[in-house]
Amino acid sequence: MSKNILDRDVIEVIKSGDEHSRNQAFAWLYKRHFKAVLKYVTLNSGLEDDAADIFQDSLVIFYLKVRKGEYQYESNIGTYLYAVARNLWLKKLRKARFDLTKLQLDQSYTFDEESIIQNSQLTIREALEHLGEACKHLLIDFYYNKKSMAELMEIHKLGSNEATRNKKYRCMQRLITFVNKNKIKRSDFSDEQ
Length: 193
Prior knowledge:
Blueprint: H1 7-15, H2 19-43, H3 48-67, H4 77-96, H5 113-118, H6 124-129, H7 133-144, H8 149-155, H9 161-181, H10 186-189
């Protein structure tokens, strides 16, 4: 297919029953639009194989929408494929994040930590990156790896259980401050979109 192909031509080819022409149209779409998806996925924690899978899924969704007459031409095909791929990749990233709703809380604290952890699925990877390595690892060890205070004290070379509890408290306070400062809403924590 040439560079002067219009979106409506691609759609008509997909709607037709001619498999050879459809395959050519998909090859053209791949050649023309895959690079944008590849760039997005690789800049957002993905690999080239991830981008290829996501783009393939986007093409399947596009194909099904066109065949069912549900593609409404609200944007050009490249924009549509990119938007679908972006949404698929974000959904995959959300599913890969830690699920804090399954973690048990240290009962010695009763501040906003409980509502943040129990009521939501925090996009923890991004938030923890802003806390620094020490806090990040301490919170991951406590909530995700389920380490006891004694184990945390030893792993993180803290002087006592009280020092460990204080450090965990300060780290959690920093996390809460980050969440509040960035106006992260409960819906931002959930993968139910």
